[in-house]
Amino acid sequence: ETGVTQTPRHLVMGMTNKKSLKCEQHLGHNAMYWYKQSAKKPLELMFVYNFKEQTENNSVPSRFSPECPNSSHLFLHLHTLQPEDSALYLCASSQVVASGELFFGEGSRLTVL
Amino acid sequence: QQQVKQSPQSLIVQKGGIPIINCAYENTAFDYFPWYQQFPGKGPALLIAIRPDVSEKKEGRFTISFNKSAKQFSLHIMDSQPGDSATYFCAASKGETSGSRLTFGEGTQLTVNP
To answer: Which in A11, A90, B17, B59 has the greatest CB count within 10 A?
Structure first.
């Protein structure tokens, strides 16, 4: 596989469920990101990891918990979500944090009932 | 507040037309301005980018025009094709070490009719 792979592509969960989104990049990059994409809104940066260390948390509610075990894998653990959290969650990577070119995955479409 | 305002929200052109998407920014410290293209069901992909030391950059049928004094930049698609139908996002960031701290516009949904 090449590029940035996200699973699952679609997820429906209740407000009391716990689920996780997974991202894997095969590009040898050192920086990884989570973005939230909602209709007719700008992409919202959630978290940034550089060499598996979190360097940025963009005031994201604690019901979203990221995990980066190594430079190739990134998880987003979800618990006690709200319906307004329904969105497309995009993972991205870049060679280094300073790079302006992000490589995005296809996203995980989350619906919270 | 660091914002990038993008217009129009949607755009429909005929094949061969030249759609133009505009973006305006407020922060004069921004020094990197990329455009991303997103097809349905896919993640955004970098299309073309410009730095403020030039006023225009062209890659194939895609051109960025940059007006530093007006704090505006735009994307032009020459000889547009139905395959160009996608959502286009402008973005901006500042600093050599903050290239990936991108501020995105709201996106423009482009439809190119055959």
So the answer is: A90
Per-residue pLDDT at A34 exceeds 60: yes
User: Which residue has tokens 């996608």?
Assistant: B86
Residue A19 CA, distance from chain mean position: 13
> For chain A, which residues lie within 8 Å of any Cβ of chain B, measuring from their own Cβ?
4, 31, 33, 40-43, 45, 48, 56, 90, 92, 94, 97-107
Q: Closest partner residue to B49 among A33, A94, A100, by Cβ?
A: A100
Residue linked to tokens 């455009």 = B35
CB B77 within 8 A of CB B19: yes
**Segment A22-44 mean pLDDT:** 93
Retrieve residue A62's tokens.
């604690």
Of A45, A97, A106, the CB nearest to B42: A106
Question: Do the Cβ atoms of A45 and B46 come within 8 Å?
Answer: no
Higher pLDDT, B64 or A39: B64
Which secondary-structure segment (H or E) carries A51? none
pLDDT at residue B99, as a whole number = 45
pLDDT in tens, B8-50: 999 999 999 999 999 999 988 888 899 999 999 899 999 999 9
